[in-house]
Design a protein that fits this description.
heterodimer; A: mainly alpha; 79% helix; globular; B: alpha+beta; Rossmann fold; OB fold (Dihydrolipoamide Acetyltransferase, E2P); six-stranded mixed sheet; five-stranded antiparallel sheet; 9 helices; 19 strands; elongated
Chain lengths: 272, 352
Amino acid sequence: MRRDTSLLFLLMLPAAAFFTAFFLLPVVHLALVGASGKDGAAAYSAIVTDANYLRALIATLGISAATTFLTLVISGFAGVFLQRNVFPGRSALVAMLTLPLAFPGVVVGFMVIILAGRQGLIGTISQALTGEKVVFAYSMAGLLMGYVYFSIPRTILTVMATAEKLDPKLEEAARSLGASTLRVVLDVILPGLKPAFISAGAICFATAMGAFGTAFTLATRIDVLPMVIYTEFTLQANIAVAAALSLVLGLVTWAALAVARTAAGSTVAAAG
Amino acid sequence: MSQTSDAREKPLSIVLEKCAKTFADGTRALEPVDLAINGGETIVFLGPSGCGKTTTLRIIAGLEQPDAGGRVLFDGEDVTNLAIEKRNVGMVFQSYALFPNMTVAGNIGYGLRIKGWSKADLAKRVTEMLALMRIERLADRAIDQLSGGQRQRVALARALAVRPRALLLDEPLTALDARLREDLRVEIDDLLRSLNITTIYVTHDQAEAMALGDRIVVMQQGRVAQIGTPRDIYQQPANAFVAEFVGTMNKLSGRVEGGIFVTAGGRMPWPEAPAGATRVMFRPEDVSIAVSDGHLNGTIASLFFLGDRVRLFVDVGDAQPIVIEASNRRKLSRGDRIGLSVDPRSFVAIDH
């Protein structure tokens, strides 16, 4: 018994060493750096006391929540549709939808500019039609579009995998009891997809919280937290604040994921 | 009229007219079928997998459309294009298909909730259904806490709660173990008798079909092979497929010579033999073991002790041994030579 435990401990050593060297030490160091500025540990409270930081935090949370919501709505419909309908070009379409997985955030930002920037497609068309040039690439709307674009692939694949496992008999049973299509969606399909929505939504949210490339390309007029951290660090050399903001960003995201995982866990258990 | 009263309308009669089904990939699942199901009748679709029995059920339910030209009539009214949610039929599936996100009571009350029943009426009806299926104590359970038998009781209660015009059951007992299957079968039988509801029951199990059906529709490769009462089907099978699918059937080949069927194992009297018969069929229970030499003589190839009786496989020189059953009082063992006689009134002549 005792030997087993020590053997287990030995086998755990490489993982523990790796975890310590590449996660624990840097985070602890980051935490210390965060408290090393002229304001000391108060740097951590700056995120709520400093109006600019607070606004950036709220903007980041807001856009991440909106991204998650929009992505789930779009992927929910598209994923179930793609899973249930076989038509020519279906696999090509699925492949295209998953393409953004391969793009760095900068490229996604660039695509948003091509579409909705000053020389963009949407602007040109709207000018031809109404005489007014619609440009939203550099606003929250543009950022949101970019985020949704690169969040869809992961979500759609998860939804498709879960939709495949939905028992069609459940829908037939509901319909035999008089349920309309809308009721079937609300009472059978959505509850069935709930675990997929929670796990894919959590990843969506976390990715949007930390996304940098797209924001860097587009965020000339808006501040999201990763951009603020970048600015504090490189332009202001305000290393302590950058470290503190990083830790808070990490903690908020981690908390959101933990909540989602708990909710998903209980759902999975209930579904048997 | 109170919604929870049990006043019953006249049970639904269902007619299928030339209902065929060809799937998108070109598979012909069902040849044109004509069928009239009387109100209050329990009709069983029996056949091996792929015979079209489930497709027929799904056409009646409204889950499948028959090919052009086919019609489904409920009490004379054409419902061919009416979606299942408007047909008011109760369905029970082999896989139970209970909603995992609802409790037992939530499942049973679902159809009533859809129909907009008041909370009080709904609760009363759910309590009634729980009592009917004797699952009162399961009301607040989650579905994953139930055994298979309990799940199927909940599924029945859910289907019946909305007072469907017909009850459609697709292999409801197939997923259960043998003992439970037997118990629930008896319970379903009692339930159907007391409810006087038109019921269509799909199964591949001939014992279930015999026990439950007022009439049985035996299906084979997308066609109706025979429609009749269990007794008809058993005693006067329309063809070799029905004869062999329903119960155990012995067959011997030979020829008729002046009222005698001559076969490798002996000479059997058969006064009413059709001219030129080359094959005869009979059930195990119509064979008796003769004291001395019988019409047929053979050797016991194997025997199985079944408790109340013994099942014997007797080699009478034909391609396949014949199966008979004997009382377990008799001392018989493998390799014994025995004589058999068969009641000629039980002979079935089918040549193909």
